[in-house]
Specification:
Elements: H1 10-16, H2 26-39, E1 48-52, E2 56-63, E3 69-73, E4 78-81, E5 87-90, E6 100-105, E7 108-116, E8 122-125, E9 135-138, E10 143-144, E11 148-150, H3 154-167, E12 173-178, H4 188-199, E13 203-206, E14 210-211, E15 222-227, H5 234-247, E16 251-255, H6 262-267, E17 274-279, E18 281-283, E19 291-293, H7 294-310
Parallel strand pairs: 3-12, 3-13, 13-17, 14-18, 15-16
Antiparallel strand pairs: 1-2, 2-12, 4-5, 4-9, 6-7, 6-9, 7-8, 10-11, 11-19, 15-17, 18-19
Helix pairs in contact: 1-3, 3-7, 5-7
Length: 312
């Protein structure tokens, strides 16, 4: 049997290095537009891009006659500079004192360290004052071994990477790159409204990253979330697991009572949208050391290619 060629994760490394916390997703949106325009000639089918007025910093990439939407949020967690040397969290960052943070303001590039006061308030340590409102994110540090990828912001640059890998062979489907997911959401609703009205799409897959737990482990396959804080429709979940079983794709079933994603926002819409969160599990979420097994990444890509081809 022919040995499978190892994947090249250079694109994932690039995605993880883009500074794009919640509210500041434009640099990553622009990276994607440039990447798609340069690589679409190698894809099996050519997409149409929707962005600009009415889309804020989001991006919609449509192929053929879409039946299913894939949502992948662009933003990451981080910090916002407040007063003096105070920091406010963007989303829910989890980092130790001494963690290196990077950004830029009117005075130039910033590479500072994270600290906490006696009451556990986040602070920065730097040789000068940083402009108020400046965003800071973890310094890029991409690590790869034979079995694992470890890096800040695999959540959700890996979800974006998955969507781009699926795009290489996608015939019918729509990729929706959303904003603000880590800090309360707000874009998935109007993006789904656009997709529903333009193509009558009523089903969505959430290309995002979950966590390893006592029931979800590294190397056991992509995770199909049967519920988190929100509960998807059982009939739709059954269709998904039936197709993955038929294709013999490795997957794990997750059941949690906390956590949310763009799927929760879709469920609260006044539209009949079915959705399911499907993503690789990671260790140490929202830290600078997020860790994912390569086998789970490959299973995630296989699952999305399968479902976009078979879900009617």
């Amino acid at each position: 049997m022919k040995k499978k060629k190892p994947s090249d994760y250079a694109l994932l490394r690039e995605l993880c290095a883009v500074h794009a916390p919640s509210g500041e997703e434009a640099p990553l949106r622009d990276f994607l537009i440039d990447y798609i325009n340069r690589h679409r000639k190698h894809w099996k089918h050519k997409p149409t891009l929707y962005h600009g007025d009415g889309f804020q910093d989001c991006l919609v990439v449509a192929f053929g006659k879409p039946r299913t939407a894939v949502f992948a949020h662009l933003d990451s967690v981080g910090f916002t500079v407040r007063y003096q040397n105070q920091l406010l969290p963007i989303g829910s960052p989890q980092a130790d004192p001494g963690t290196v943070l990077v950004g830029h303001d009117s005075q130039g590039e910033i590479r500072c360290t994270l600290a906490y006061d006696a009451e556990d308030h986040a602070l920065y340590q730097f040789g000068r004052a940083i402009d108020r409102g400046t965003s800071l994110t973890y310094e890029p540090h991409f690590r790869e071994t034979a079995d694992y990828i470890q890096s800040p912001y695999l959540d959700n640059r890996l979800g974006v990477y998955n969507a781009l890998k699926v795009a290489e062979t996608l015939k019918d489907g729509v990729l929706v790159f959303s904003c603000w997911e880590e800090h309360g959401g707000g874009s998935a609703g109007y993006l789904m409204d656009f997709v529903f009205n333009k193509w009558n799409v009523t089903q969505a897959l959430i290309s995002d990253i979950t966590w390893t737990t006592d029931g979800v482990r590294h190397g056991q396959g992509v995770v199909v979330s049967l519920r988190d804080r929100s509960i998807p429709r059982k009939r739709f979940l059954n269709r998904i697991t039936a197709e993955l079983d038929k294709a013999k794709i490795n997957y794990q079933r997750e059941v949690e009572g906390i956590g949310s994603s763009d799927g929760g926002e879709l469920q609260r819409m006044a539209l009949p949208i079915d959705w399911c969160f499907i993503g690789a599990p990671e260790q140490d979420p929202h830290t600078p050391h997020e860790k994912v097994h390569k086998a789970d990444i490959e299973a995630m890509i296989e699952a999305y290619r399968c479902l976009l081809a078979t879900l009617k």
